[in-house]
Structures are given as structure tokens and as C-alpha cells.
Fold this protein.
Amino acid sequence: MLTAIYTAVGELVGEGADRISFPVIAERAGVNPTTLYRRWDDVNALLEEVAVAALTRDGESLPDTGSLEHDLAQWADIIARDITRPERVRYLRAMVSARVDIVSACPVTETRREQASKMVRRARERGEATPTVPQILDHVIAPLYYHVVFALPVDHEYARRLVHDVLTMVR
Amino acid sequence: MLTAIYTAVGELVGEGADRISFPVIAERAGVNPTTLYRRWDDVNALLEEVAVAALTRDGESLPDTGSLEHDLAQWADIIARDITRPERVRYLRAMVSARVDIVSACPVTETRREQASKMVRRARERGEATPTVPQILDHVIAPLYYHVVFALPVDHEYARRLVHDVLTMVR
């Protein structure tokens, strides 16, 4: 049933549906709306869960090159490619317009935080000086996503420049 | 007539209207929709013009304290306060969901770019070492707006941390 729900959400977002509500998703997935109301607080929570699941399913593997600089460069490239795919752009925009209340943690950011933490931890174990995890989120992740949601260009060069900048913070 | 149109857009955004289209704006403003189609390429262009106008009208004055560090700190605070106002948050979200095609320049970013350029120019004239204008946009502006559109908290401390980080880039 979860697969049907996820697929329905994916289809609706993919089609650029205007209003993605529980009844609309339930109808497409062939489930009872009550199921959705019971399981998720709101449509946004479901959208995010699907987006995070899609992120994982795409099998993004975390770079492990032996240097934080190269890890971050590859990681930023992977993210830049991923979040500029039309389907992902639509997800991100749907998420932005669905958000109303201030949240303490955004699941998409949390995924990136975990990934950054892992790379930073490995680098520190190797004795490398590193920027902090919040610095990586603020200065690599935030500008990449900012560009995508405001429809500004994102490319390899831009991703590299952000990584270069955040690394100067430790010198 | 422009005032009526701007006011109509402001009201609709303020009310959190679902679909802000030319006909909807025209009806509210009491003008012929043709006027809007002739003057603006799309609704998004109009929304942005109104947002930029509102920004200017609010009379944000650019800090000029005699040091880039203090200028940036005050500027980041002003922006943090401005873009977390409920009306501004709605504008930004409306803009994000209205955007479809990649743009080479986002008017909101351009306003910030001009402001940053002015402060950096003054600092260089005083002989201060400075980060570049793109670095200020990527590492102060982008994270602030990213937080707002993804509904993450933005406060004085956060704004200060970003300014501190971008300044370490020149050392």
C-alpha cells in the first residue's frame, strides 16, 4: 500500500498537479483517505517522506575518496545534478509552497546533515582540519538549493566554487 | 493604475491566494486583463516587481558604519528581520512556486547584489580586504533565503554566524 501511495505522489508531482491533497492522493493510489490522515500529519509530511525516499532509492552513494576536499567536491556535484532534474525541482517547489509553519528540522536538510557529518567524521579521523557540519550546510547545501528554488542556474563550476569557499573557512 | 495593480497583488499575496493569475489580479485591481498581458511577460514578473518595489518602499537603508564587518552584520540583521515577516514569506513562496523556467537573474538577488557591491566598494576604498560580492550572495543571502523558504528558523544569531563565516574567507 505504501508503494501505491508513494507512486501516486510521485505521479502527481511529476504531472505538476496544482493541488496535491490527501483526497487527491488517496484517489490516485486507490486507498481510503482515512489511511493518509491517520499516518501523516499533513500532505507536506508525506511529500517530504516521498522526496527523501526517492533520494535514497536513487542510490546516491556517499563519496569516500580519502580527502574531505574531494569528497565534498564529488558530493556537491552529485547533489547539483540530482536537484536540477525536473522531477526533483518540482518536488522542492511543491515542498516550499506546502510549508506553512516554521519547522525545527527539514527532512531534506537532515539527510544532507547526516551525509556531511559522515564525511567530516572520516576526515577528522584522518587528522584533517575541517569546516563544521553547519558550515557545510550553510555554505554548500543552502546556496545549491537556493539556486534551484529561485530558478537560478546550478552547474558543476558553481558546486565546485561553493566547496572551495567552505574549505577556506578552516585555513 | 500601477498603484491599483500593486495593491491588488499585495492583497492577494497577503490573503495567501491559491492562484494568482492575470485575470484574478485584473479583477481585483479593476483594470482590463489586457493591460497586464501587455506590460508583463508573466505573473511571476509582476510578482517580482511588486516584491522589489515593496523592498524599496520599506526604506531599508544600507548600513555605512565605516567597517565591512559591521556593515554586513547590520545588513544581514535587517534582511533577516525583513524576510521573516509573514507577508514577505508569502511573497517569497509565491515567487518560488510561480517560477518555472531558469532565469539568469532573479530581481530579489539582484537588489542584494547591488547592495553588497556598494558596501564592498566602500570597504575596498578604505583599504579593507573583503570577500567577493558573489561570496556574500552565496554565503549570507542564499542561506538566509533558503531558511525562509524551507521554513527553517532565522534569527539574529544565525545572520551573525553567516557574516562571520564569509569574513573568514578573506583571512
About this structure: Residues 107-125 of chain B form the longest helix (19 residues). Chain B has a mean pLDDT of 86. The interface with chain A takes residues 18-19, 93, 95-97, 99-106, 108-109, 134-135, 138-139, 142-143, 145-147, 149-153, 161-162, 165, 168-169 of chain B (CB under 8 Å).
